[in-house]
Design a protein that fits this description.
Length: 244
């Protein structure tokens, strides 16, 4: 489906000057069901869902269910659905693609080489994410500049070119830091992933995301076994590499 977005620099400037709640409200008011939060249910995503529950109560919430998420993440998704009375849309890997990959390379191919890890992320994350993106004109993400060096220049709003057209990609909390997120969570009693209490600072699939030390980058626990040879901590959904 072609999107209705045209690249307008004035609009982009206006969006980049907005605060998080104004951005979420703009997305819902202007684009309705063609806007959605796509989240892996980390802290920033949960904050945005909480904001949307008040200012954009019909906002779609989507997640990429790689079928290898932590049990704590699956439990959180259900808790969020109950708390806010919403149904989270789950986008999963295409079954025949997944079966072929596992038959050919095994379930733990991500240990073998960086290329196989990226292939796994392509099948389990990137392809379902593309299916989700095809249903929106406005993609709302939980990216923050303090997540990693590679995310240090993340704009609050940008146009991204997909093969079927242009979409608006928003990162409403791009300029928030950890303290701001924690303060919002405490004040609004936002449900959070239990793994944060176990030292995780970035949460994706089991095995591929691990706890971090205080001096490490927030995403250092991703694919930790590659840290010595490759510091690319992106899976392909947000650029670089092939994977969340
Ligand atoms: S994070 Fe690991 S298990 Fe999840 S899709 Fe990527 S390589 Fe596969």
């Amino acid at each position: 489906m072609e999107t209705a977005i045209t690249e307008d620099q004035a609009l982009l400037d206006e969006l980049n000057a907005m605060d998080p709640e104004a951005l979420i409200a703009w997305a819902y008011t202007r684009h309705g069901e063609r806007a959605g939060i796509i989240t892996s249910f980390q802290d920033t995503g949960c904050v945005m869902i909480d904001m949307a529950s008040r200012i954009a109560p019909g906002m779609r919430v989507m997640t990429i269910d790689t079928q290898r998420l932590h049990p704590e993440t699956y439990a959180l998704i259900e808790e969020v659905e109950r708390r806010y009375g919403i149904e989270v849309e789950r986008f999963q890997p295409e079954p025949s693609r997944l079966k072929k990959m596992v038959d050919q390379h095994g379930l733990y191919l991500f240990f073998d080489t960086k290329a196989k890890q990226e292939f796994c992320c392509q099948v389990r994350k990137v392809e379902p994410n593309i299916r989700a993106l095809r249903t929106v004109d406005v993609w709302i993400t939980g990216l923050r500049r303090d997540h990693s060096e590679t995310r240090g220049a993340t704009p609050k709003a940008q146009f991204v070119q997909e093969e079927w057209g242009t979409i608006v990609k928003l990162a409403p909390l791009a300029d928030w830091d950890e303290a701001q997120v924690r303060a919002y969570v405490a004040e609004n009693r936002v449900p959070m992933n239990a793994l944060y209490d176990q030292g995780y600072t970035s949460i994706g699939c089991v095995i591929c995301s691990t706890p971090t030390k205080p001096w490490e980058d927030k995403r250092a626990g991703r694919w930790r076994w590659f840290n010595a040879i490759d510091n690319d901590k992106e899976c392909g959904i947000h650029g670089q590499g092939a994977g969340i």
